[in-house]
Amino acid sequence: MALLFFFIFIALTLGITAWAARRTRTTEHFYAAGRSVTAGQNGLALAGDYMSAASFLGIAGLVSTTGFDGLIYSTGWLVGWPIVLFLIAEPLRNLGRYTFADVVALRFRPVPVRVAAAIGTLATVTFYLIAQMVGAGSLIRMLFGIPFEAAVVVTGAVMIVYVLFGGMLATTWVQIVKAALLLAGATLLGVLVLARFHFDPTALFAAAAERYGDAVLAPGKLVSSPLEAISLGLALMFGTAGLPHILMRFYTVPEARAARTSVFYATGLIGYFYLMTFVLGFGAMVLVGPDAIRAADPGGNMAAPLLAELLGGEAFLGFISAVAFATILAVVAGLTLSGAAAISHDLWVNVVRRGVPESDEELRVAKLATIALGVLAIVLGISFKGQNVAFMVALAFAIAASANFPALLLAIYWSRLTTHGAVASMLTGTVSTLLLIWLSPTIQVDMLGRDTAWFPLKNPALVTIPLAFAVGIVVSLLAPEPEAAARHRQLARQMLLGPDA
Amino acid sequence: MNRDEEIAALTRTRARVAGALTAVAIVIYFGFILLIAYAKPLLAVQLRPGLSVGILLGALVIVGSWLLTLGYVRWANRYVDAALDALRK
């Protein structure tokens, strides 16, 4: 049954890809869907890009086994969106073309800035891809019973087809279909749960408290240290505004107003979805039971599929499983496209060719980069089999928040930022995040089996975000760059009115 | 005012509003996180059976964040876009 729904989804999305391939001829089509995406479509596509399997299966599982603690993640994943809207979306759309590095490179010497931005982008994309691929492998093995390695190869191959032939247009529509399916699936599941509690969510929560104690409705031991909670919160809140595949979406709409409106739609859709995770998680806790959920998968990831099977039988289980797979497939497609843009647009065209590519070269390199990243994702996915993927998502958010966000924010709003400051901030953010994760308890204690870790926090954002800002500011103040400040004044008009002004 | 001054003034206004709303979003979310860290008993209080303060505040953080984006979009659609249209003329 699951396979049937899965094949329907694959057939539908490959049809979309064939349709999109006929419309994808130029570089602008490949990276930015010809800037033809409407605000409503982009709102759905942003939601599709953002709601990964981690949010659907992971949070439902976390809530069903720990109660309130899981909800801390539901809120954390949403609060980055207002930041994206207020600070980033409109200036990004008006100043750049394909990647967020465009915005930073506009004011500074382009070569060093592009290299540093590409390093941050590729680091973020790689860790996010590993997490999604490993998640895809285990999930598909659990749901469909095919081997882990085969599942990873299928995911990588289908994703390469979407991106290679359909570019951003196909990726956008895969996101839209996936977001609609995910929202419909979550809603249906939520309604079926609430129907058993007279459509009163508090009756559901009360039933959970009655069976498993009042403690499930209050903070537990997940957030044992306040510093840990604040650090994770910082990574989630500011990481969203530095995720390359999310930022790239703002180039697919015709102008800044559509970019603005699309974030409002996306925030509403994602917020609704995370509110539903309250119902799905507690529903699985009461109706399926934490022990049965842990027995199916120690990580709790099977909570939502088990709940679907209980409430709607095998057909509904098949539907929810196919939705979960579609979710992973769509997210890796968006990630790969943004990685390919960093390699082709930032590194090849603007660094190797100094901004003057041979004809059609940018598109050709982007397609080669897509295949290379797809193969890399498959290889990494298989070699990281069985690893804890949650920390890799946290790592991707921490790098995005520390390497990409501070430099982007300063480049847009601070006239005294210099080339050296921007590069130093991006490199410091990337290197310090990787280093502190390496020294953290997650790697030193949990993975390497040492007794203690040199750095106490699992998530380094509390240190690395302020550090990246401080380095960018101090380096800029030490050696001012009058041309960069003058460019900031010249760009004020374009920042408001767009590239045509 | 000449055109450059108008652009500078609009840039400042937008930055002020965006900065203030960002501060509100940060206060809401980290207020919630600090309550989780330091006021666990308060969040455990049940206002009615099943509805703990923690769950209510968690839902309000989500709804509140969305309302902030609604407020900004309405303000920008009205005020910023009108000013931009005037600048384009």
How much helix is in the residues of chain B?
A: over 70%
Side-by-side strand order of the widest sheet of chain B: 1-2
Q: For the residues shown, what is the average pLDDT of chain B?
A: 92
Distance between the termini of chain B: 15 Å
List the uncertain runs of chain B: none
Largest sheet of chain A: none
Give a verbal description of the structure.
- The complex is a heterodimer of chains A (501) and B (89).
- Chain A is an all-alpha fold and 501 residues long.
- Helices cover 80% and strands 0% of the residues of chain A.
- Chain A is built from 21 helices and no strands.
- In chain A, helix 1 packs across helix 9, helix 5 packs antiparallel against helix 13 and helix 8 packs across helix 16.
- Chain A is globular.
- In chain A, 64% of the residues are buried.
- A two-stranded antiparallel sheet of chain B has the order 1-2.
- In chain B, helix 1 runs antiparallel to helix 3.
- The longest helix of chain B has 36 residues.
- The mean pLDDT of chain B is 92.
Outline the fold blueprint.
The complex is a heterodimer of chains A (501) and B (89).
Chain A: H1 2-23, H2 27-32, H3 39-50, H4 53-66, H5 68-78, H6 80-95, H7 100-105, H8 110-144, H9 148-195, H10 201-212, H11 226-239, H12 244-249, H13 256-288, H14 290-296, H15 303-352, H16 361-383, H17 390-413, H18 419-438, H19 441-447, H20 461-478, H21 482-497
Chain B: H1 3-38, H2 40-44, E1 46-48, E2 51-52, H3 53-88
Antiparallel strand pairs in B: 1-2
